[in-house]
């Protein structure tokens, strides 16, 4: 299945799904994922391996973190070469004062927003989809 590249189609077809749980960003300097930790995202950086993991797994493994996020998956299957979706989403969330960390997967875009405002972020994105149609 090929991904969509048309921004209008992506916006009108996006379905924001809030995944259950609380997620945190942490890092391991040696690049080794601790036993019992199953990251939903990893990013290799010069300073170490960034992990996005459930807060419960981070706590159980003694991993340090500061930011607790809600994880939203966008139902639209965006092509990796599509232009403008993360910018449109970030702009919409910024307009209501919400930070947004975007991770592109092969099939979907994933957003990490402040956990305490995750439901609000979903409402904002649903409104954007309605207005784009």
Descriptive account of the structure:
This protein has 4 helices and 6 strands. Strands 2-3-1-4-6-5 form a 6-stranded antiparallel beta sheet. Helix 1 crosses helix 4. The two termini are 23 Å apart.
Biggest beta-sheet profile:
6 strands, antiparallel
**What is the straight-line distance between the termini?**
23 Å
Instruction: Output the radius of gyration.
Output: 15 Å
Helix/sheet category:
alpha+beta
Low-confidence stretches: none
Mean pLDDT: 94
So how many helices? 4
Which strand-content bin applies to the residues? 25-35%
The coarse silhouette is globular
CATH topology: VC0802-like
Topology as a string of helices (H) and strands (E):
HEEEHEHEEH
Helical fraction: 25-40%
Number of domains: 1
CATH superfamily: VC0802-like
Q: How many beta-strand segments?
A: 6
What is the name of the CATH class?
Alpha Beta
CATH 2nd-level architecture: 2-Layer Sandwich
Strand order of the largest sheet: 2-3-1-4-6-5
